[in-house]
Amino acid sequence: LGWGCGDTDPPAPPSILLVVVDTLRADAVSAYGNGLETTPAFDALAEEGRLYTRAYAPSPWTLPSHASLLTGQTVEDHGVGLAGRVVLPKAARTLAERLRDRGYETAAFSENALISEDFGFAQGFDHFAVRTAEEQMAAGKKGTIDVVDELRDWLQGRDPQRPFFVFVN
Q1: Which of 4, 86, 88, 95 could cysteine-pair with 120, CB 3.0–4.6 Å?
Q2: What is the C-alpha separation between 26 and 138, in angstroms, rounded?
Q3: CA distance linking residue 114 with residue 20, whole number of Å
Q4: Over the Cα atoms of the chain, what is R_g?
Q5: CA separation (Å) from 45 to 48, 55, 110, 143?
Q6: How confident is the model over 6-64, as pLDDT tens digits?
């Protein structure tokens, strides 16, 4: 008969991949009209799925926007970006925490030092890979982690029986 009627197991929860490309303007993306074919992978996704023509950030800068994205709260509710607050409060419940509590393996990979443990964004992630601002300053330049290699290594070592939530910035 179907799920809920005792005949079959409920469907397995889906794995979730959330990719944020910080400060990418729509006019730089081919699917939005840039004729230079700058973003072939995004273009392919747009052809197969939905292409949003109206998306609004909750704030004009990284920290409060990501705090809202990962908590579902408005800037006024989580307070990041207001009155000098730059760290996500521990009391804010993140998507990663909610999914981890439901059995998901959680991992984050960030090339942006603002999206790091220093600013409270590791809440709920079992694995968090980032090159911090301290590491960048110690190296004397802005450096990045290789997100593709880090993600590949994490995927190879994870439990394939569990769903995952992966956040990539």
Answers
A1: 88
A2: 34
A3: 13
A4: 18
A5: 5, 17, 22, 29
A6: 667 788 899 999 988 887 888 888 988 888 888 898 888 888 877 888 888 899 999 99
Q: Does pLDDT of 3 surpass 60?
A: no
Nearest-angstrom CA–CA distance, 7 and 61: 50
Half-sphere exposure of 109 (CA within 13 A, CB side): 18
Mean pLDDT of 131-139: 68
How far is it, in rounded angstroms, from Cα 69 to Cα 120? 13
111 in Cβ contact with 144 (< 8 Å)? yes
Task: Give dist(CA 6, CA 53) in Å, integer.
Answer: 43
- The distance in angstroms from the start CA to the end CA of the chain is 42
Chain centre to alpha carbon of residue 110: 8
Q: How many CA atoms lie within 13 A of 88 on its CB side?
A: 27
Note whether 109 and 130 are within 8 A (CB): yes
CB of 162 closer than 8 Å to CB of 154: no
Beta carbons of 15 and 164 less than 8 angstroms apart? yes
Over the stretch 98-108, which tens digit does the pLDDT of each residue have? 999 999 999 99
